[in-house]
Write a structure and sequence with these properties.
This protein is α/β, with parallel strands linked by helices. Among the domains are: about 250 residues, no CATH class; about 55 residues, no CATH class. Helices cover about 45% and strands about 15% of the residues. It has an 8-stranded mixed sheet, with helices on both faces. The chain has a 6-stranded mixed sheet with strand order 1-2-10-9-5-3. Helix 24 links the parallel strand 19 and strand 20. It is elongated and about 130 Å long. The termini are far apart. The N terminus is likely disordered.
Length: about 675
Amino acid sequence: MRTTILIPGVAELARLLRLALAAMAFAGLSACSLLNSFQPMVGIEPMSPGEYIAFQRGDILTTGRLSAATEQTIRVTGLDTGACAGAMPDCLAALAEAKGVSMEQRLSAAAELWLRQALSAFKVRAGEFGERQAFKAAMEAARYAYAYLFLIPRDPVARAFEDRQTQVRDWYNTAVQLASTQLFDARSRADDSLGGNDPGVLDYGGWTMQVQMASVRSVSADNVPQELLPASSLAFHGLRSIYRRDGIGAELVAVLEDAPVAVVSDWQAGRNPDKPRSRVRRPAEWSEMPSPNLTVLFLFDGDGLKDALRTREARVVIHDPYEDSDVMLHGQRVPLAANFTAGYGLWLARSDFSRQSLRTLFGSEQGIDKPHLYMMQPFDPDRRIILMLHGLASSPEAWVNVANEILGDAELREAFQVWQVYYPTSVPVAINHAQIRQLVTQALHHFDPEGAAPASSDMVLIGHSMGGMIARLMVSSADQQLWRWVLEGRDISADRLERLHARLDPMLRFSPMPNAARAIFIAAPHRGTAVAGERLVRWISQLIRLPLRLLESFDDVVETLSGGDAGRRDEQPRRTLALPNSIDNLSADDAFVKVAADLPISPEVRYHSIIARENARGSLEDSGDGLVPYRSAHLPGAVSEKVIVSGHSVQETATAILEIRRILHEDLKERAVKKDM
C-alpha cells in the first residue's frame, strides 16, 4: 500500500502559520485573563510620611495642582478637573446640584477652582479686559473662601485642627492679595473704570468696594502709596529672620513717598473719633518708616450665606498689624495675619544708607548735615520708646537684625516702639549729642505736648560705639566740667565769652534726660581708643570734612576759640583746631573724652554694658575688639556686663541680640512687679 504525502505550497504554509500564531495568542490571553481574575483590584505602594503629608496638604498654591480634597469633590459630580478648568459655570452648577457633597466641600472646592483661574489669569493678563477677568476670579475665590471660613453652620473653632481650614484660609489671603494689588494698580493709573469721585468707594470689575482704614495712620487720602507690594514677594538677604503672624488677611507693604519734607501722623486726631484723621507736614527732622506693613481684609456682608454668594459689594478693611492683632468676624475673635519684617527690610534695602554714611563722613555731596529721627511705626502713646544710636561711619543699617528681632518678639513689640537716629558721624560728639537730645525732645513734645503718655517716660537708649558715647552723655550731667575744658589755656575777652556762652552753654551744661530710664552701651569707647592715634587713622581723619552748614553756624565760635579776628575767614585746618572731628573725639588722648568719661551718670538710670573681645585667650583687662579696649568699654556700676568674643560690630551677633532681648524682658518684669506693689 502506497502512502501519499502532500506537500503544501508556500502560500498555504504562510496561512497555516498565521492561524497557529493566532491560536497561541488567544490561548495566552485567555490564560492571562484567567490569572488576572484572581489578582486583587487594589494595589499598595509604599509612601513615606513626607509624601503622605504632601499628598494631603498639597494644593494649587504649593504644588500648582488642585488639592486631593477638591479633586475628590469634583469626581463625585461626575466631572473631571480638566473640564472644570475650562467651564467654571458648568462645574459650579454641577457642584451645587451634586448629591453626597456637603456645603463645606462645595465652598472649599469652588474657592480653590476660582483661585486656580485667578492665578492663571494674573500670569497672562493682557489689557484692561484681561486684568478685570483676573480681578473677578480673585474676588470669587475670596468670596467662596470667606463663606467657608465664617458662614457655614460648623463653628471655625471646631475645624481648628483640620488641614482643609488652613488651606482655605491661605486661599482667601492669596485671593485678597491679588485683588488688592489689582485695585491699587487700577487706581494708580486713574483707571476710568473705577468710577465715582469718592476715594473711599471703588467700582471695578463689576464690584463695589468700600475702603475703610481700621487702624492705619501712615496711609491716607493725602499720603497715597507709590507702590503696594505683597510681603510674600519680597525675599531678603542680610536679615537673620522673617517675623510674621499667622491669621486672616493679605500681608502687604505700602511704599510711601520719602519726600524732603517728612509727613508725620497726628496720632491724637487719628485716635479721636470726633476729629478727622489728619497729617501734619513738618520739616525733615523726624519721619515714619516710609514702607509700613499692612494687613487687608475683604468682608462680604449680608444676612447669611446666600447673601454673601450673591452680593457684588465688599468692604476693604485695612489694618496696621502693630495696632491690631485680631478682629471680630461673625462673632468669632480671629487673629490677623501680619508680616513685621517685610516693610523694614524693604526700607533698608532701598535706603542707600551705607554709601550715604560714607559720603557724610568725608563731606561729599548727598550726605546729611544734621540728625534725623526715623520711627519704625506711627507714634504710639502707649508704647515706650527704644532709641537706637549707631556708630562712626554707620547708619540705621547697624541695627538691621537688632530692630528686626525686637519687632519680631510679640511681648516686646506690644510694649515698645523703635526710634532710630541717623546722624552725621563726622561732627564732634558734643555737638551731635546736643542736637540729638534736642531732636528727641522736640519730637516727644510734638506728639505728647503734656508729657503724660507712657511713651514720654522710661525710654531705653541703645548705643553702639560712638553712639554709646552719645547715649552715655544723654543720661549724664555736666555743670562746669566741660566749660573748664573749653576755656583751658585760652584768653578770651568778656564780650566774646558772653557771646560764646550763649552758643555753647546748651552743649556744655546739661542734666540727664528725664525721659530715659535704662541704657545699653555696646562696644562704646567711653575713654577713647589708642587706635584713633595710629598713623593710618590720623591720615583718614584728615580726609574728614565737617558739614559746611555746621562750620558756618559755628563761625564765630571757631574764630573765638582759635584766637582769630572777627570777620576773618579761616581755612579748614584752622577750623578743625577749634572743632575737632569725630575721630579726634575717639582718641584716648582727646581732652574732651577725658572729661566726658568722668561725668556722673544719673542714679535713676539702670545701665548695661555689652563688650566685645577678639580673642577668648588672655587677660580680660588687656583685651579689646580690635578698635575699643575693654578698659574703655567697661563701666563700673553697670547692672550687667556681657563680654562676647567678637569684633567691633558685636551688636549684630546672635549673642548680643539675645542679651539685648534679655535686658528688655527683664525691664518689663521689673515694671510689672513695681506696678503690682
